[in-house]
Amino acid sequence: MAACLPLICLLVSVTAIAADFSPERYWNTALPNTPIPNSLRHLFTPDFTDEKSTNVQVGKGGVNVNAGKGKPGGGTAVNVGKGGVHVDTGKGKGTHVSVSGGKGPGGGVGVHTGKPGKRTDVGVGKGGVIVHTRHKGKPVYVGVKPGPNPFVYNYAASKTQLHDDPKAALFFLEKDMVPGKEMNLRFNAEDGYDGKTAFLPRGEAETMPFESEKFSEILKTFSVKPGSGEAEMMKKTIEECEAKRVGGEEKYCATSLESMVDFSVSKLGKDHVRAVSTEVAQKNAPMQRYIIAAAGVKKLSDDKSVVCHKQKYPFAVFYCHKAMMTSVYAVPLEGENGLRAKAVAVCHKNTSAWNPNHLAFKVLKVKPGTVPVCHFLPETHVVWFSY
């Protein structure tokens, strides 16, 4: 049998045993005793992904990827032979084979057929091989203007953010977290698109450029017009990911569920770790008055945690940061219309390194480093902690 290139040998060897190693399977393997929060589970199936199944078959002729359209010859063949690698999409068009060092632990390999948004992707990453058939579209941008992210603590609030940003109401003082306390809140966080942007498999995500130096390439990949509102939003997300860390904070932007799991486990361990999110009984609940229920507040963690905030981007990207001296609470809430919420709150005991003009200080009328500052998590955000 002729020897094959290391890259293709890897593709062939792992496809047969790991083709079903989905992001959910990766989570269950890495964290078998940690339930997946609903906020993350809802991001497994993108609105812009073809729901038809995709099959991966390994034989003497190479690897065949069938997009599941039910048409003979409708798949994409990756053949390994003595002369090298030949990829045939069935239409006589070439296909790009790329290797990436990735942005997280491990590297990635991508085989892409067709144009971005209209292709079949075979991605090889640390989590295995994922075959992903993209729909003919992508999430539709609905015009959310980029502004200072209140969960990135080295940014100052804009002049109008205190009154215009509903997330301003999520900040409060720890002393106010008592039964009977009333607060006006809205937990659903807009991500700039008409539907929830979803996770890409790590093998695919790691072949996508995600840095300011390649921003023009990124816009072309997603067919986004330079200078548009969507372009500005994407640029803001990348800049936040590249910004310097605050104080002793350790931060990382996860472009896949697998990389989020790896980062969180690397900071907290995997034997006794939980991930939780805010849950509201009604979808897209409006701003309303809530009261902290008599059942009372429960402290979940009082040391270190990793908080992951969902960013505004065409696919799911999370800004994750670990900071010491934080407490995590479960807060039961009852809305004025009978709506119930299981809110998650994070309290920062040391804010001395935050921007003195941060939104939290304007809302609460306090100075950095004087009192613990707390905030509720929007529904799409996640906090990890040890127990």
From TrEMBL:
Residues 70-84, 101-111 have a biased composition (Gly residues). Residues 59-69 have a biased composition (Low complexity). Pfam families: BURP (PF03181). Keywords: Signal. It comes from the Eukaryota. Residues 1-19 form the signal peptide. InterPro entries: BURP (IPR044816), BURP_dom (IPR004873). This is BURP domain-containing protein. PROSITE patterns: BURP. It comes from Brassica oleracea var. oleracea. Residues 171-387 form the BURP domain. Residues 59-125 are annotated as: Disordered.
